[in-house]
Design brief:
The chain is of the alpha+beta class. It has one domain (12-177): Pnp Oxidase, Chain A (Roll). Helices cover 40% and strands 26% of the residues. It has helices spanning 12-18, 21-39, 42-45, 91-98, 123-136, 139-144, 148-151, 158-166; strands at 52-58, 65-71, 73-74, 80-84, 103-108, 111-119, 168-177. The protein has a seven-stranded antiparallel β-sheet with strand order 2-1-5-6-7-4-3, with helices on both faces.
Length: 178
C-alpha cells in the first residue's frame, strides 16, 4: 500500500518557500564556501561540476555582479535546465528576467559559457520536466521528499499540481564557450 504524498516540512523546496532564519544563515554561509571552492576549481576536480553550476548575473537594482550556485540537469529536451525552488521570488531568477536579452554567464565544471536563459512557461512542458525529475533523479527524495517505492504514482495528485505551480524551470542554451 502506498502512502499519500505530501511535501514535507523538511524538504528543501519547503524550506526555500518558508525561508526560516536558520536556513537563510546556513544557506548564505554554505553558498559562500561553495562559490569559493568552485572558483578555485577544487569542487569541479572532484566531479561536483556535473550537477552544480555557478550562475553569474547582474543585480537588477544595484548593477553589481552576483554569483549563485545551483543544481543543473539535462532533461528530455537535451538543454541544460535549472529548477527554481522559490519560483519567481528567487532573486537570481528576477535578475535573469530583468536583463534585456537574458544572456548570462555560467560555469559548469572547468568550462564557462555565455547562455541564453528562457523560462519554461508551458504548463505541460513544466509537468514533463517535473515528472522526469521525480522519476529519474535521486535528489527528488531530498528536494521534494518524494520516494517512488513509498508514494507510488503521484502525478495526478493535488500536491503534485501545487508543487508544479510553486517552482519554475529555466532552460539554458549555450551561445559561446568562454
Amino acid at each position: 500500500m502506498t502512502e499519500e504524498y505530501k511535501l514535507g516540512k523538511r524538504s528543501l523546496v519547503s524550506l526555500h518557500r518558508r525561508r526560516p532564519l536558520f536556513f537563510r544563515i546556513f544557506n548564505r554561509i554554505a553558498n559562500g564556501i561553495f562559490i569559493f571552492l568552485y572558483r578555485i576549481y577544487l569542487l569541479p576536480l572532484f566531479g561536483i561540476g556535473n550537477k552544480m553550476v555557478l550562475i553569474n548575473t547582474v543585480g537588477r537594482k544595484t548593477g553589481k555582479k552576483r554569483t549563485t550556485p545551483t543544481l543543473i540537469f539535462t532533461f528530455y529536451t537535451g538543454k541544460f535546465t535549472l529548477y527554481v525552488a522559490r519560483g519567481k521570488k528567487a532573486h537570481w531568477l528576477q535578475n535573469i528576467l530583468a536583463t534585456e536579452d537574458q544572456i548570462i554567464e555560467i560555469q559548469k565544471g572547468f568550462k564557462k559559457w555565455k547562455v541564453k536563459a528562457t523560462l519554461v512557461e508551458d504548463p505541460s512542458e513544466k509537468s514533463m520536466h517535473l515528472k522526469q525529475y521525480f522519476e529519474e533523479f535521486s535528489e527528488a527524495r531530498t528536494i521534494f521528499g518524494y520516494n517512488k517505492e513509498k508514494h507510488g504514482n503521484v502525478f495526478d495528485t493535488e500536491e503534485y499540481k501545487r508543487i508544479l505551480n510553486m517552482i519554475e524551470f529555466v532552460q539554458l542554451v549555450p551561445i559561446i564557450e568562454l
